[in-house]
Fold this protein.
Amino acid sequence: MEEHPLSSDSAPLRLAVFDVDGTLIDSQKSIVGAMAEAWRALGMEPPTHEAVLRIVGLPLLEGIGLLAAGHPPERHAALREQYSSSWTRMRAEGLLCEDTFPGAFEALDALEEQGWLLGVATGKSRRGLDSLLDKYDLASRFVTLQTSDNHRGKPHPEMLEHAIAEAGTDPASTVMIGDTTFDIEMGRNAGTFAIGVEWGYHSTEELWKAGAHAVIKDFAELPRTIANLTEGGRP
């Protein structure tokens, strides 16, 4: 069997798993816009910007269920279909706003140079994730891609557990990086390190309360923060 190029006694496998929306990519304008279109298409008053950002990271139907909690499941399903249609239209027309946060690519470079494997665990659909990775030519950077299409969504640890299994690592050598309490709780539930980012959709205070081992102000801090955390051993 061929040995993984990073596997050796002196260089054990280590995995850094990233959330996408709010962590690597600032997509809030498109998410909020597509939600507003979906609500209006069904004659409903759209949720506020702040309310939409609260559910980013959850599986789409679950998040919509929270936003439209007073409506029956069939209305939630209809809103999901409208949202997906709006997102597809925006992508086809080149209207999606999905900019990378400053320093994201440099942080990925630095972690790879330090021997880290990279992965993704996101509430996005696999179709949406693949489209985004193609846009930025990122697919080859990640050894594992986990979405809630086939796994239970955050904060359940299933996506992260599958990422660890695919990469051949273990929880003690894995770090989850994300902007929401769902990311932090998923990491803690999976027994990994969990690092929050200040520039995303949940507040720094909430990230600490959710159990973050560290919270960074910008991507330049990430390589050193990960090194400091993991040098100490298990989470």
Remarks:
- Strands lie at 14-18, 25-26, 99-100, 116-122, 144-147, 174-178, 193-197, 214-216.
- Residues 1-10 have pLDDT under 50 and may be disordered.
- The chain is about 45% helix and 15% strand.
- The radius of gyration is 18 Å.
